[in-house]
Amino acid sequence: MRISIPDTSLGRLKDTWRACVGTGRLDLALRRDYQDSLALVQQDIGFRYLRGHGLLSDGVGIHRPYEYEGSQRVRYSFTYSDQVIDTYLGLGIKPFLELGFMPSALASGDQTVFWWRGNVTPPRSWDEWADLVRATLTHLVARYGIEEVRTWPVEVWNEPNLPHFWKDADADAYHRLYEVSSQAVKDVDSSIQVGGPVISPGSDHWLVPFAEFVESRGLPIDFVSKHAYASGPVQKVPFGVHQTLWPPEHLLKQFASPRELLRDTSLRDLPVHITEFNSSYRPDNPIHDTAFHAAYLAPVVAAGGDIVDSFSYWTFSDVFEEEGIPTALFHGGFGLLTHHQIKKPTYHVYAFMARMGDDVLARGTDHLVTRDATGRVTVLAWAAVDVTDNTPADGHTLRLSVPLRTSGASAFLLRSSVSEEDGNAWAAWSEMGRPCSPTPRQREILRETAEPSRRHARLPVVNGRVALDITLARHEVTLVELAPVDDETPPWWDDDRMLGLTVPSGDEDPAPTPGEEP
After folding, report:
1. Coil, strand or helix: which one is 355?
2. What is the distance between the alpha carbons of residues 297 and 45, in angstroms, rounded to a whole number?
3. Which ranges in 218-286 belong to alpha helices (H)?
4. Is the pLDDT of residue 460 over 90?
5. CA–CA distance from 5 to each of 335, 373, 398, 400 (Å)?
6. What's the chain's average pLDDT?
7. What does the pLDDT look like over 356-374, one tens digit per residue?
8. pLDDT at 512 (0 to 100)
9. Residues 6+ apart with CB under 8 A from 80
10. CB-based contacts of 141: which residues, under 8 Å, 6+ apart?
11. Can you name the residues that pair with 363 across neighbouring β-strands?
12. Are 319 and 24 in contact (CB under 8 A)?
């Protein structure tokens, strides 16, 4: 059956899918590979905010205690943080600030998380913690201006519901942290946005008590944040993991849960930000590198904007070291890009979305159709994945009748695709023998194989419509662009005559004698 796409708009395509993207700890932004990766992402996709850990950790080095004249004092050093944020702003992206982790000299204990040892204990002095938050925000305002900093959300901590991110997963201690932190933020300027509780999946029971605490204490809160992942228990292998996955719809249900749970609280009308999401929560799960992953997340990226105010893909680059230094180019990292800027199939889901129009014409379980101001119609389509069955699936055909506003008789079609066969550098790397450190030539080959396949055609427009048949390969995500053809072919043009083999009577000039100039 052919699906008839309406000619009238269903509404605007919200661009919350690119409101934010994640990153590793902030001091990684001092590396050239990181900066080159972010520049490419911004060129092709254009995220608005970037969120990562470690703003207040030792690696960025803001909190610097010292002794002078017999007393203990603190100097706040912004040498690295300035370089990081200058880099972000220079590439057209703003920071989504996360207050964490605890500077070691201010920590009440020595418990850490990650290979780079972020301290996850409460402060030994709540007053000194408040001073640190105020000093950091005050410096940002002085350097970048209050109007700019007011646009930067400030999130208090990261996943305090998990004991490896917050000592003992102590909810009361987190509530105290939120109280002290949010008030310190507002001490600098009442219009700076602050929020939480930044919980991981499976801990939605934190939301209502958090709302009740904020309300009972009259605390400031401008947004609610949480994370969403869809993977099961870890099955460890050397330098990696495997995990089962829930269907992609499970991620959308997680997106929706804060508003459902908070509907009877004072937080019910606040913006909801999913400040991390992905399939697996592990940075060493090879599923992240595959075409399957692109097809798995395509319906989430296409629909998530109708549910929340932002949902931040975790992360834009494999320059990321939570589990240590990667042992191979493809290692299951979170990134849309590997090291050396090789695009993964999921990268193209975002790049395709960036080329779509603003007006939504239709949505389906396997497609999204839009139109832009020039009349160009775009169709994003994806092959459904089965998380319980890894056997090859037969090709799925999507048959559409697409409206195209034109007085002409034809349309130009450009189709860009990634699948198991196309735009899949991970597959090419596997066929190379999975070299841990590819040579420069191998990296160039991988960059070439990472690009989507491109197909083009000219299709007839009949009664203002184009009959479009899209057959999707296994794990394919495709973007079809349809634009009216303004035909400027001269009347004398004849493709059959290009080799001069067909000559209409009377048009042939005498052939020159061999050896003479014509």
Report:
1. coil
2. 16
3. 249-261
4. yes
5. 35, 18, 12, 7
6. 94
7. 999 999 999 999 999 999 9
8. 64
9. 27, 30, 59, 60, 61
10. 149, 188, 189
11. 368
12. yes
pLDDT digits (tens, 9 = 90+) for 48-59: 999 999 999 999
Backbone φ, ψ for residue 190 (5° rounding): -70, -15
Encoding tokens for residue 428?
């090419």
**Structure tokens belonging to residue 328:** 């191979």
Residue 506 scores a pLDDT above 90? no
Q: Residue 308: which of 10, 9, 11, 15 has the closest Cα?
A: 15
Grouping H, G, I as helix, E, B as strand and the rest as coil, residue 201 is coil
Domains, the chain, ranges and CATH?
3-8+360-484 (2.60.40.1500), 14-358 (3.20.20.80)
Element (H, E) at 49: strand 49-51
Beta-bridge partner residues of 471: 397
Which residues are catalytic, by number?
159, 276
Q: Is the pTM of this model over 0.85?
A: yes
Amino acid of residue 120: V
User: How far is Cα 215 from Cα 221, in angstroms, rounded to an integer?
Assistant: 9
Could you give the CA distance from residue 99 to residue 160 in angstroms, rounded to a whole number? 12
d(CA 518, CA 512): 5
15 and 44 Cβ atoms separated by less than 8 Å: no
The owner of tokens 């904007």 is 305
> Within a 10 A sphere around the Cβ of 153, how many other Cβ atoms?
24
Task: Note the pLDDT tens digit of each residue in 216-262.
Answer: 999 999 999 999 999 999 999 999 999 999 999 999 999 999 999 99
Nearest in space to 81 (alpha carbons), one of 113, 58, 104: 58
Sign of CA dihedral 165, 170, 173, 179: positive
Is residue 372 within 8 A of residue 357, CB to CB? The reply is yes
